């Protein structure tokens, strides 16, 4: 099975049971948009895109427990960022688990 097909199958099996707030029509609309316009990208791909765009630093700040959603930070200068993630994976319960640098 192709990577995109695996992604779509996994998205459906993981998110459909979780997104109970959506009506069947809303889910169908969302899933149609996903299958026609969204393409999976790796973490490395997002980090490389930031560096290729001219940012000095690129790193992941957050990954949700399902692995579908991530937040990245891109810094213009190479200095240490204002927020540094504590070691280990960050999930929703740990979303406030950041330390501020002076």
Overall, the morphology is elongated
Task: Please identify the structural class as seen in this structure.
Answer: alpha+beta
- Separation of the first and last Cα atoms: 49 Å
Which residues sit in consecutive blocks of at least 5 with pLDDT less than 50?
83-102
Number of strands: 4
Strand content: 15-25%
- Biggest sheet, strands in spatial order? 1-2
Largest β-sheet summary: 2 strands, antiparallel
Helix percent reads 25-40%
By DSSP (H or I, 4+ residues per run), the number of helices equals 3
Task: Return the string of H and E elements.
Answer: HHHEEEE
Mean pLDDT over all positions: 80
Task: From the alpha carbons, calculate the radius of gyration and give it in angstroms.
Answer: 17 Å
What would you note in describing this structure?
The structure is a single chain. This protein has 102 residues and is an alpha+beta fold. The chain is 36% helix and 19% strand. It is built from 3 helices and 4 strands. It has helices at 3-15, 24-37, 43-52; strands at 57-63, 70-75, 83-85, 98-100. Strand 1 and strand 2 (70-75) form a beta hairpin. The longest helix has 14 residues, at 24-37. The radius of gyration is 17 Å and the shape is elongated. 0% of the residues are buried. Residues 83-102 have low confidence and may be disordered.
Short description:
This protein is α+β, with helices and mostly antiparallel strands. The protein contains 3 helices and 4 strands.
Which SSEs are present, and which pair or pack?
Elements: H1 3-15, H2 24-37, H3 43-52, E1 57-63, E2 70-75, E3 83-85, E4 98-100
Antiparallel strand pairs: 1-2, 3-4
């Amino acid at each position: 099975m192709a990577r995109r097909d695996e992604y779509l199958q996994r998205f459906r099996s993981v998110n459909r049971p979780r997104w109970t707030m959506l009506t069947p029509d809303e889910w169908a609309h969302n899933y149609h948009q996903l299958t026609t316009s969204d393409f999976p990208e790796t973490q490395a791909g997002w980090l490389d895109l930031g560096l290729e765009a001219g940012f000095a630093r690129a790193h992941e700040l957050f990954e949700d427990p399902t692995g579908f959603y991530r937040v990245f930070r891109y810094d213009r200068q190479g200095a240490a960022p204002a927020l540094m993630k504590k070691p280990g994976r960050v999930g929703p319960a740990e979303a406030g688990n950041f330390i501020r640098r002076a």
